[in-house]
Amino acid sequence: MNIVIFGATGPTGRNILQQALATHPTLILTAVARNPAAIEIQNERLRVVLGDVYDAQSVEQAIAGQDAVIAVFGSAYTPTKIVTIYSAGIRNILTAMQKQGVRRLLAVTSGGTNPHYDRNAGFIFSVIIKSIIGRTLYDDMRRMEAAITQSNLDWTIVRPARLIDTPGINSYRLGETYTLPHGTQTSRADLADFLLQDVQKNQYIHKAVAIATDGAH
After folding, report:
1. Pick from 23, 49, 26: nearest CA to 189
2. pLDDT range class, residue 158, cuts 50, 70, 90
3. 209 close to 148: Cβ distance less than 8 angstroms
4. What's the CATH superfamily of 2-213?
């Protein structure tokens, strides 16, 4: 199975590459990076290509010949600037998938895309972080989710809580919602594990799924 990963140089992307190469021997990976030298992993099942989600041509070239796309690209909070990477990037990816006949898409957003107050996320996140500090970022994530759900592709949206690093894969929970009770953190290793499992099992097609690591609060 051929999978292309957008956002491969980020922390979640690196987890995906490492896990796929270590424990999923049937997966052939293409990692898209603005700076390919930033990916130091070398493996016969890994191809690293130059690309940028803002560049439609490089996106289409990377998607050609693939069986599935995993999108984990993103941006830091920029409360005083408009964020466009999520919506612009996914539009290029969706267009390229349509042209190339690639149907399977897994895209990571956040539980912060919930437009309403979220009791599970808590007061600080819902009122201060989501509505003020991260407002422009979550606005663009909502545009990304809207574009995906309006497409006719076999999509899955994955909504982690606050991302953390753990030494390995943990027990984690899933739910078809924005956030989970007592689930304010998500291990990047767990997120990567779920993405790699579902890209092969296709259990959550046309669904948006929250993921939270057990015992991480």
Report:
1. 23
2. very high
3. no
4. NAD(P)-binding Rossmann-like Domain (3.40.50.720)
